[in-house]
Design goal:
Blueprint lengths: L11 H4 L7 E5 L2 E5 L4 H18 L5 E4 L3 E3 L9 E2 L3 E4 L9 E3 L4 E5 L5 H15 L3 E6 L4 E6 L10 E6 L3 E3 L7 E3 H4 L4
Parallel strand pairs: 4-7, 8-9
Antiparallel strand pairs: 1-2, 3-6, 4-5, 6-8, 9-10, 10-11, 12-13
């Protein structure tokens, strides 16, 4: 439960004190409640995570699953915290034991009716601005994956996007040699 404050502005320090079973994300100090993922969402997350985990085993990059905090502006206001469905971090100095401080290398968000606009607009802008190099939007309903690659995050207008539909495998650009078998990701549906 959110504590009562006179002003509706919170930081990561406030966020850590919240009790109860609800999950929140913070954007510019404003909390947004997160709904529980559906069965379909969980099945897609499990398969994507399994394939990434198997590829990353024994390698320096690490995979994390929600809920795991990503603090995109920890070096300034520390008022924006996301919990992406899956994320890959290759720079261990960004891990503080309970969160990723700064931009992960890769973020995967699985769309659902309650979060698609938020993931496709608000969060995508934050990820791009903060330096995420690869962003996937996975849509279980349409069985599609939109992949955004930002080779030069500091030039946030420059990116390549590719929509994968009816593809068998999708290459993970930031992980040389890694391909996700998308047919298997959507197989349980």
């Amino acid at each position: 439960m959110l504590p009562q404050k006179k002003e509706e502005y919170y930081t990561y320090s406030d966020y850590l004190t919240w009790e109860g079973g609800e999950r929140y994300e913070l954007i510019n100090g404003i909390p947004y409640a997160m709904s529980s993922p559906s069965q379909k969402h969980q099945e897609v997350s499990r398969e994507l995570g399994g394939q990434l985990y198997n590829f990353l085993r024994g390698k320096p990059c690490k995979l994390f699953y929600a809920p795991f905090d990503v603090r995109l502006n920890a070096d300034s206001y520390d008022d924006t915290v996301f919990q992406p469905d899956l994320l890959v971090v290759c720079d261990k100095s960004k891990l503080d034991g309970k969160s990723c401080v700064g931009a992960p290398d890769m973020v995967i968000e699985i769309l659902s009716p309650s979060n698609s606009k938020h993931d496709m607009l608000d969060k995508m802008l934050w990820y791009r601005k903060s330096g995420v190099r690869e962003y996937w939007l996975v849509d279980p309903d349409t069985k599609t994956v939109m992949v955004y690659i930002w080779d030069a995050p500091e030039e946030s207008e420059k990116y390549v996007s590719t929509l994968y539909k009816d593809a068998e495998k999708i290459p993970v650009k930031i992980l040389a040699g890694c391909e996700i078998n998308i047919t298997e990701v959507f197989a349980d549906e």
